[in-house]
């Protein structure tokens, strides 16, 4: 049977270097505490002590447990105790406990026998080996169960972390599905309105209807590029909206005026995809339904720590807004809540000078 390489053995034992060094530090600390206790005990009775040799003994006594420890933890993983098998496996666990004690004592004795002469401590005397093995095995037996309990706590914590990651993943997938559903509700709404508009134009001007269809096709192709994303840069969102504006400009000729006032410093900031175009669409629809001419103003600026997007019109105001408008705004609000957890807002208000204004605010730190 081929002997596995150290690298393969480390991988099989699942030894993490950070945890390995942490174990060395812990066992070294225990060895130092044991030495401190032994030194204090001897001092309290006025007994002498060979400090270097005793310190070496205590450190090798704890370090010797580091060798069987990874194998023991792997064994716990492969052969766990459970309610259904504890009567069969408990004797095996007791045998493993004794085996750990014997291995620990053997390693410790061999290391001391080899190191004592080199370090100038003389010859190491373990005493009667039979009793030495019994004594050392009894001393480290509680450690076996401490290791087992620690292993159980580690597994429980790992399972909790795994469940937390799975929950976070499921919540993320649910949020993505919800956002996708909300976003997809906007596209048919826009498409339905635009096709109705083109249908009405066809009877008046076939060339204009053909131009509108070409613009719509370009708009939809542009939309497909962002079908799988929830956020785009402001520059990209403006490009999407500009396609819609081009369609409206072709539809209404010189009757519709749309002015843009954009802070160029914000162009690379991210905002939810398809959040601006529906606001412009609502403003255009209800303004042009009520009048032969319309004025729409789009302003995007930084206000404190937020990006403020405002779309105002000179239409009839909120009283003319239909349930469809409220549904469209509610759709955007739900997407904002999912993405920003209450840190973003969308408000629709009447303007004192007439018309309505939609104000969207997004936290700049999340953009």
The CATH superfamily of the largest domain is identified as Histidine kinase-like ATPase, C-terminal domain
Secondary-structure-based class equals alpha+beta
Main sheet characteristics? 5 strands, mixed
Beta-strand residue fraction: 5-15%
Per DSSP, the total helix count is 10
What is the CATH class name of the largest domain? Alpha Beta
Rg (C-alpha, Å): 38 Å
Number of domains: 2
Output the strand order for the largest sheet.
2-4-5-7-6
Quote the distance from N terminus to C terminus.
60 Å
Mean pLDDT: 84
Query: Which architecture of the largest domain would the CATH scheme give at its second level?
Result: 2-Layer Sandwich
**CATH-derived topology of the largest domain:** Heat Shock Protein 90
Write the element-wise H/E pattern from the N-terminal end onward. HHHHHHHEHEEHEEHEE
Helix amount: 55-70%
What does this 3D model show about the protein?
The protein is of the alpha+beta class. It has two domains: 6-166, no CATH class; 205-366, Heat Shock Protein 90. Helix content is 65%, strand content 12%. It is built from ten helices and seven strands. Strands 2-4-5-7-6 form a five-stranded mixed sheet, covered by helices on one side. A hairpin with a 2-residue loop joins β4 and β5. The longest helix is centred in the middle third of the chain and has 74 residues, at 129-202. The model has no long low-confidence stretch (mean pLDDT 84).
């Amino acid at each position: 049977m081929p002997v596995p390489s150290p690298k393969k053995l480390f991988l099989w034992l699942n030894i993490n270097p950070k945890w390995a060094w942490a174990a060395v530090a812990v066992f070294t600390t225990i060895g130092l505490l044991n030495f401190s206790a032994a030194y204090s005990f001897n001092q309290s009775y006025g007994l002498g002590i060979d400090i270097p040799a005793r310190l070496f003994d205590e450190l090798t006594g704890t370090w010797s447990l580091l060798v069987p420890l990874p194998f023991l933890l792997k064994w716990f993983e492969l052969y766990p105790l459970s309610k259904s098998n504890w009567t069969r496996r408990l004797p095996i666990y007791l045998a493993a406990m004794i085996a750990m004690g014997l291995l620990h004592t053997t390693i410790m004795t061999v290391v001391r026998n080899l190191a004592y002469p080199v370090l100038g401590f003389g010859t190491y005397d373990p005493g009667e080996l039979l009793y030495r093995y019994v004594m050392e095995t009894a001393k480290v037996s509680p450690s076996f169960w401490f290791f087992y309990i620690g292993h159980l706590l580690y597994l429980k914590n790992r399972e909790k972390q795994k469940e937390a990651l799975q929950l976070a993943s499921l919540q993320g997938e649910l949020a993505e599905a919800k956002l996708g559903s909300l976003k997809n509700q906007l596209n048919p709404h826009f498409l339905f309105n635009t096709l109705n508009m083109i249908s009405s134009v066809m009877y008046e001007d076939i060339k204009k209807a053909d131009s509108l269809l070409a613009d719509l096709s370009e708009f939809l192709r542009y939309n497909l590029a962002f079908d799988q994303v929830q956020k785009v840069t402001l520059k990209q969102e403006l490009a999407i909206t500009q396609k819609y504006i081009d369609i409206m400009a072709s539809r209404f000729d010189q009757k519709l005026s749309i002015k843009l006032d954009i802070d160029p410093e914000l162009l690379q900031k991210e905002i939810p995809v398809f959040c601006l175009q529906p606001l412009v669409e609502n403003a255009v629809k209800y303004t042009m339904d009520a009048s032969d001419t319309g004025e729409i103003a789009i302003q995007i600026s930084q206000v404190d720590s937020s990006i403020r997007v405002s779309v105002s019109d000179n239409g009839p105001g909120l009283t003319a807004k239909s349930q469809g408008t409220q549904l469209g705004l509610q759709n955007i609000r739900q997407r904002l809540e999912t993405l920003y957890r209450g840190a973003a807002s969308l408000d629709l208000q009447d303007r004192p000078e007439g018309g309505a204004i939609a104000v969207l605010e997004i936290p700049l730190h999340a953009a």
